[in-house]
Fold this protein.
Amino acid sequence: MHWDFIVILIVLGGLVPWLGRRRVRQLMLLPRTTQMDRLTLYASTIAFQWAAAGVILWRAAAHGIPPDQLGLFVPRPGLAVSLSVLLSALLFANQVFSVNRLASRSLDPRGLLPQLASKIFPQDNLERLAFVALASTVALCEEVIYRGFIQFIFQDVTRGGVLLGILFSAVFFALAHSYQGKRGLFSTFAVGLLFGAVRSWTGSLIPPISAHFVADLTVGFLAPVRLREKSPEHSLVTGSVATDDSANSGENP
């Protein structure tokens, strides 16, 4: 394996997970985040993702790896489009189910998921617009990095070991999302396996990119609303509104 590929793998497997956990710890220490905090987070993530994907594509091209070996090709358009729709629908349903299930539980507002929802996910239309740009970038760049580059590298090193390529791409993908805790680590590993298998089957990154975008956008838009509805502050406000309405209806029959 080329030395620069080894460096890239060390960064992706060690530095990126550490930076992600460090950033989340810093966010958890803040009582709340402002709009500028969230927009800055989105912008810095977008910049890092494009830089990482750019370096990887540069080094891959320098070593003569053709784009089709990285999934940047659509050898079977019909299959790619069909699986894009199917996989996106599956991930959308899963995200809606997962968010609604979490919202139905009695969650500690100091827990990781409620805090992530309130501090990271968009809260108004401007932030939602920026989040769309973020989700687009993450879907494209992470699939190029993990299902494109890493899956190819390990498949090449093992001389055609497709299953090992899928496995290692899922491992690196899960490590990059270790800031989400154990539940997030296992769920992203499972999603990584699914995306890797589809990428190998179709020979294209189009299906996992599409599904990745839909999954991130769904949870980013839905989670803040659903979890906010279960927050003590929301319950207190709605309770006060209901009391005031009852009083008003008594005074004005």
